[in-house]
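Worked example

This section walks through a single chain of length 476. The input is the sequence exactly as stored; nothing has been trimmed or padded.
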Amino acid sequence: MHLVKPALIALVVGSALAPAGFAAEGATKNVIVLITDGASLNTWRAASYYRHGGLGHEAYDDFDVQLFLSTYPLNTAKEPTGSNFGAITFESSAIWNAAPVDTIAKGTVANYPGYFAGYDYLRKDPTDSAAAVTALATGHKTYNNAINWSNTDTRLKNIGEYAVESGRALGVVTTVQWSHATPAGFLAHNRSRNDYVGIAKEAVESGLASVIMGSGHPYFDKNGKPMEPKADKAFQYVGGRDTWEKLKSGATPYKLISTKADFEALAKGTLDLAGKTKVLGTVENSDTTQFNRAGVAAGDLLPNQPDLATMTRGALEIIAMDPDGFFLMVEGGAVDWAAHANNLPRIIEEQVDFNRTVEAVVDWVGKKSSWNDTLVIVTTDHGNGMLLGPDSNKVAFSGIVNQGAGALPLVRWHTDGHTRELVPVYAKGKGADFFVSVAKKEPGLAVYDVPAAAQAYADNTDVFRASAKALGVKVD
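Given that input, the structure is written out below as tokens.
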């Protein structure tokens, strides 16, 4: 992480926002939010070490704003309570407590010694992806399990809805099932993230998004091999069998695509949409585009899966047709899955795929838009795995060890679950300085060897506020 440019270290004084359904004069035309799900700071660094042999070489390393975000949920509940019961507070100073502890954190992959009080604090009461994406998409904290749903049992309006009301297009792209928590946060509303059928049905039937892309194909397995569905459950991620049949028959607003060739043609602008103006891409995989394939090592990628950069370029081809602009969310969703598995080779593989996608977006802005017309925000929804250095059992927060390009860094995992670590946020374009205006100083971040200007954090809800302010939409 590099220095925040001095010109952006100032409070932002904005004009009044426009009425809902219209963009304020002088607003940003486009907002692109890229989320690498479950990436602790050292996930980013491990990928950069492996790919480049050092830090400072990724596209986001040149962004104007480089800070951190807090990511805790509203409470400890998993359904609406309508009360303050189990309310969670967050004290960043508690993270750095290096007092030794003899606790054990139970995990799925292993059990993890506590080592330091700060580590225990980070493992306690983390957000799940549903509450996290609700914060990112609506600006509201909520209970774990909620998709744009409040603790008072009401729907929450997300940034995708605001964007469409303002006349813009909406796009949602992911490497996991497109009804999974993070993409669902920009497509639907539900009391439970596990209602995949309901989430997918809402996404398709509302027609809110011009582009939806991800996995969850009912006729392919996790290795991208054709299969015959054995039960209706195989169709859950695409809204059930009936919704899938409607998509296949053309009885929805969406052109359904699944083959890698179609995704590549869309990215080149040569795909025949057969009269449709919207695209729903469901790649030939039931699980993730790559992570869940057989084995645990990196390499030998499934040949029939488009990479995230190709999917993103295809989405941009469609939504950029809207003369009023767009909001696009892109997720590297399987980074989180690799962290849960403590799988270093594949978390790096997934993060590199994400980083190449950031490059594709930056390239698109340079060639087909401008930084005055497009705000790009790059972040994660929460930490996962608490990836630290091999000596982090003896020295609190010691860094991972770079072994050079093409070699895995030396690391130590401290959990196989989510954490409430402060996580990176990078922003560039008109409106990026919003994060600087709301950030709080946190000198403890110096332990990560980041410059003083980057030792500050905003909250994950500020991603919504930055997006809404940039788009010039009035928040209800």
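What to look for: Confidence is low (pLDDT under 50) at residues 2-21.
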